[in-house]
């Protein structure tokens, strides 16, 4: 088993007044050669957007882009004709593929919105752009799968051999996460509280990557919330 630890305090930070963003991996003006990615997990941004502000229309291509609101709601519009609101408790995915433009704005004029912006490198380039969003089922004290490689599986799907799970816990829980693919690794991001993964103690907004293992033991304290992202370790 191999591990890489990223404390919350070690992340990059950008303050654009209307946007405050913490970067777990190199992004924009934050560049750290040893933190370019974890396997095909390329971007993990922890964003806070001021009331009434947001990201104007801009392009993407050949990337799987996942958004998970943690507080408030975002208004999404794109060149595929989609217009929707994603709220806390939702997960959104956009396969940029051959190219798409989109914008995302805070849906409130009085409260900030916080969300995770996650980019995953796809296994194939030039796919047709697509969009989807779903509400995350409420299932306390267990892990809920919210993303997979298959449209027939639970949660949204992407063009990559990846699985995401979220758990919200109001009591102490111990469980085992078994990886779906031998060539995958697992990156854990603690949204709140304290957890222990593979024997490593993690606090709020800490991240830990684990690979070259078939399963990982997860111990969670009451009041914790954690996002697990299983992704291939080899870039396409």
Topology:
Elements: E1 2-6, E2 12-15, E3 19-23, E4 41-49, E5 54-60, E6 64-71, E7 73-78, E8 83-87, E9 90-95, E10 100-106, E11 113-120, E12 130-135, E13 143-148, E14 156-157, E15 163-169, E16 173-178, E17 184-192, E18 195-197, E19 200-202, E20 207-211, E21 215-220, E22 224-232
Parallel strand pairs: 13-14
Antiparallel strand pairs: 1-20, 2-3, 3-4, 4-11, 5-10, 6-9, 6-11, 7-8, 7-10, 9-12, 13-15, 15-22, 16-21, 17-20, 17-22, 18-19, 18-21
How does this structure look, described?
This protein has 236 residues and is an all-beta fold. A hairpin with a 4-residue loop joins strand 7 (73-78) and strand 8 (83-87). Strands 1-20-17-22-15-13-14 form a 7-stranded mixed sheet, with no helix packed on it. It has a 7-stranded antiparallel sheet with strand order 2-3-4-11-6-9-12, with no helix packed on it. The relative contact order is 0.19. The chain has strands at residues 2-6, 12-15, 19-23, 41-49, 54-60, 64-71, 73-78, 83-87, 90-95, 100-106, 113-120, 130-135, 143-148, 156-157, 163-169, 173-178, 184-192, 195-197, 200-202, 207-211, 215-220, 224-232. The mean pLDDT is 96.
What's the architecture, going by CATH? Sandwich
Helicity level: under 10%
> Span from first to last CA?
22 Å
Whole-number count of domains: 1
Count of helical stretches = 0
**Largest sheet strand order:** 1-20-17-22-15-13-14
Q: Please give the largest β-sheet.
A: 7 strands, mixed
Q: Radius of gyration over alpha carbons?
A: 17 Å
Uncertain parts: none
Q: Name the helix and strand elements from N-terminus to C-terminus, one letter apiece.
A: EEEEEEEEEEEEEEEEEEEEEE
Which fold name is given in CATH as the topology?
Answer: Jelly Rolls
Briefly note the structural class of the backbone. Answer: mainly beta
The CATH superfamily is Jelly Rolls
The whole-number mean of residue pLDDT values reads: 96
Classified by CATH, the class is Mainly Beta
Based on Cα principal axes, name the global outline.
Answer: globular
How many strand units?
Answer: 22
Strand content: over 45%
């Amino acid at each position: 088993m191999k591990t890489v630890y990223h404390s919350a305090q070690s992340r990059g930070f950008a303050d654009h007044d209307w946007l405050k963003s913490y970067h777990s991996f190199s992004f924009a003006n934050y560049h750290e050669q040893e933190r370019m990615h974890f396997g095909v997990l390329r971007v993990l941004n922890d964003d806070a957007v001021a009331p009434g502000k947001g990201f104007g229309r801009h392009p993407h291509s050949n990337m799987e882009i996942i958004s998970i609101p943690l507080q408030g709601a975002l208004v999404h519009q794109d060149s595929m004709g989609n217009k929707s609101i994603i709220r806390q408790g939702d997960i959104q995915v956009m396969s940029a593929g051959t190219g798409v433009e989109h914008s995302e704005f805070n849906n409130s004029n009085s409260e900030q919105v916080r969300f995770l912006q996650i980019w995953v490198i796809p296994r194939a380039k030039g796919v047709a752009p697509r969009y989807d969003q779903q509400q995350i089922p409420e299932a306390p004290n267990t892990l809920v799968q919210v993303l997979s490689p298959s449209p027939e599986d639970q949660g949204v799907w992407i063009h990559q051999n990846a699985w995401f799970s979220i758990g919200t816990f109001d009591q102490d829980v111990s469980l085992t996460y078994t990886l779906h693919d031998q060539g995958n690794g697992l990156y854990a991001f603690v949204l709140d509280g304290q957890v222990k993964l593979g024997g490593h103690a993690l606090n709020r907004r800490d991240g830990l990557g684990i690979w070259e293992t078939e399963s990982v033991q997860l111990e969670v304290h009451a009041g914790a919330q954690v996002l697990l992202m299983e992704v291939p370790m080899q870039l396409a």
